[in-house]
């Protein structure tokens, strides 16, 4: 009989329990596809007594993830604990040092230590795969490293955090407050252990940095991602944007420009009729543009037990088959340190201002924009009863620097109340 591939699974939460279930329930299918039986030798979690909804008695148990990672009867260490440092990092390093292959769903770990871990894997002739870390069940890492390997990648963008997309779409479609939509997302199991990773855009930023590395052959540079979460997106902006034919999305964009590598994760407006604009709920979407393939769109569940475990098993089966791809699609020594773009590509912007309702106020704002070189494309003043007038402006393409100069100058006009809202309109 062919030698089985023996797994050691660290973490038995949402994803870990899902992986155990697949291994137990699909043994024949996995063996047929992988060319050898897939077995679990041992598992590890914090609490041994917890009911995981799946029998674990037939597997060995380790309290210490490092001990699991280095067991003689483990060929592949499957890291499903989470956390950028601590036990996840220690156990992954130990597994690679011992020459074990590693499959991880941990975007935080890879975003901070991806380069060092890729080097460690190569030093031991091991592989380190992380499909489940980006966009859950969508096989986007495989698409970039393998299916699209013959392309120069021009741009990668997408909605990569289910929690944020769920919150934004529920605020729009059901009129929920931010807190109500957040509570619903929590109930669906979308949130990270620290929810600020989700709503602060950090989790999605981790994922974007990993895709940028594969797409542009650069060392992972999470610190260079321009990050903004959804905390400042108001129901008012979601409604006004919808009224003007846009949806608000936490959108990640990375592209190599003449000014360096641009990586942005921030709330943006996208056309309501575009595939990204139509993306509802906890679903993720990644759009890839390659010089040969043109634009492709990948859409699917970005989180949850089944979809994430599905991605983990894809990596496990690759290892069973003997497919050995470099962590970021090419040997780690080839990955270059990219210069971060200091300015973002020009784009149109949506502005929402509250103007004092007095003669000449609008003219002053228009003058300030004009002096900064920002041209107005569309403008709308909402009907109102108070002393202030809500004004919406869509600019023509402009640089962020010109826009910031205009926003700053508006403060000095004494006709703008509060802080204007500015959201980039991403061109798709
Ligand atoms: P989770 O439900 O919180 O489960 C984490 C598991 O790790 C638990 O079983 C926990 O043990 C165990 N654990 C934590 N610290 C440990 C330690 N020091 N020693 C041993 N075990 C430890 O997390 P999850 O949602 O499954 O996520 C796991 C990983 O997948 C994370 O990196 C996450 O970012 C990533 N991911 C998750 C999803 C998703 O939809 N959930 C999607 C994509 C990627 P106890 O159960 O005993 O506490
Ligand atoms: N918290 C993440 C999300 C889970 O909401 O998308 C999947 O990475």
Note the gap between the termini: 52 Å
Shape summary: elongated
Structural class: alpha/beta
What fraction strand?
A: 25-35%
**Quick one: how many beta strands?**
16
Overall pLDDT confidence: 95
Number of helices: 14
Give a short account of the largest sheet.
Answer: 10 strands, mixed
Q: Which range best describes the helical content: under 10%, 10-25%, 25-40%, 40-55%, 55-70% or over 70%?
A: 25-40%
Give me the CATH superfamily of the largest domain.
Dihydrodipicolinate Reductase, domain 2
How many separate domains make up the residues?
3
Query: Judging by the overall fold, what is the CATH architecture of the largest domain?
Result: 2-Layer Sandwich
Summed up, what is this model?
The chain is an alpha/beta fold.
Could you list some keywords that capture this structure?
Alpha-Beta Plaits; 16 strands; Rossmann fold; 428 residues; 3 domains; Dihydrodipicolinate Reductase, domain 2; alpha/beta; 10-stranded mixed sheet; 36% helix
Folded structure, characterized:
It is a single chain. The protein is built from 14 helices and 16 strands. By secondary structure, the protein is of the alpha/beta class. It starts with a strand and ends with a strand. The mean pLDDT is 95. The protein is 36% helix and 25% strand. The strands form 2 sheets. Strands 7, 8, 9, 10, 11, 12, 13, 14, 15 and 16 form a 10-stranded mixed beta sheet that branches. The chain has a 6-stranded parallel beta sheet with strand order 3-2-1-4-5-6, with helices on both faces. The protein is elongated and about 85 Å long. The protein has 3 domains: 129 residues, NAD(P)-binding Rossmann-like Domain (Rossmann fold); 163 residues, Dihydrodipicolinate Reductase, domain 2, CATH 3.30.360.10; 77 residues, Alpha-Beta Plaits, CATH 3.30.70. 46% of the residues are buried. Strand 5, helix 5 and strand 6 form a beta-alpha-beta unit. The protein binds NADP nicotinamide-adenine-dinucleotide phosphate and L-homoserine. The site of L-homoserine (HSE) has 11 residues, from helix 7. The site of NADP nicotinamide-adenine-dinucleotide phosphate has 28 residues, from helix 1.
């Amino acid at each position: 009989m062919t030698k089985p591939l023996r797994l050691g699974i660290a973490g038995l939460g949402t994803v870990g329990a899902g992986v155990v279930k697949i291994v137990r329930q699909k043994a024949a299918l996995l063996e047929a596809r992988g060319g050898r039986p897939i077995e679990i030798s041992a598992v590890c979690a914090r609490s041994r007594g917890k009911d995981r909804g799946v029998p674990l008695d037939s597997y060995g148990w380790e309290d210490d993830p490092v001990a699991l990672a280095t067991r003689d009867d483990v060929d592949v260490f499957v890291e499903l604990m989470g956390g950028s440092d601590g036990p996840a990092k220690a156990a992954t390093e130990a597994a690679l040092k011992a020459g074990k292959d590693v499959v991880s769903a941990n975007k935080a770990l890879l975003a901070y230590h991806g380069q060092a871990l890729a080097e460690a894997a190569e030093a031991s002739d091991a592989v380190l795969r992380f499909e489940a870390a980006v966009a859950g069940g969508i096989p986007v890492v495989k698409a970039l490293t393998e299916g699209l390997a013959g392309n120069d990648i021009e741009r990668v963008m997408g909605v990569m955090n289910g929690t944020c997309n769920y919150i934004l779409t529920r605020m729009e479609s059901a009129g929920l407050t931010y807190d109500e939509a957040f509570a619903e997302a929590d109930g669906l199991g979308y949130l990270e252990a620290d929810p600020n990773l989700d709503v602060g855009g950090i989790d999605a930023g981790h994922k974007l940095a990993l895709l940028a590395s594969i797409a542009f052959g650069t060392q992972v540079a999470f610190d260079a991602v321009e990050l903004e979460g959804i905390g400042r997106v108001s129901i008012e902006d979601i409604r006004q944007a919808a009224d003007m034919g846009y949806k608000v999305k936490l959108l990640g964009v990375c592209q190599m420009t003449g000014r360096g590598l641009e990586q942005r994760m921030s709330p943006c407006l996208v056309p309501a009729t575009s595939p990204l604009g139509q993306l509802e709920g906890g679903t993720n979407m990644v759009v890839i543009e390659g010089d040969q393939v043109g634009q492709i769109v990948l859409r699917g569940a970005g989180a949850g037990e089944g979809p994430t475990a599905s991605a983990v098993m894809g990596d496990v089966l690759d290892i069973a088959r003997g497919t050995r791809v470099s962590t970021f699609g090419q040997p780690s020594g080839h990955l270059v340190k990219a210069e971060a773009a200091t300015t973002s590509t020009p784009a149109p912007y949506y502005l929402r201002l509250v103007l004092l309702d007095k003669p000449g106020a609008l003219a002053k704002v228009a003058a300030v924009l004009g002096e900064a070189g920002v041209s107005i494309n569309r403008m709308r003043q909402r009907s109102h009863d108070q002393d202030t007038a809500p004004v919406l402006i869509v600019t023509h393409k402009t640089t962020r620097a010109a826009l910031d100069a205009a926003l700053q100058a508006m403060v000095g006009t004494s006709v703008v109340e509060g802080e204007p809202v500015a959201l980039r309109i991403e061109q798709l």
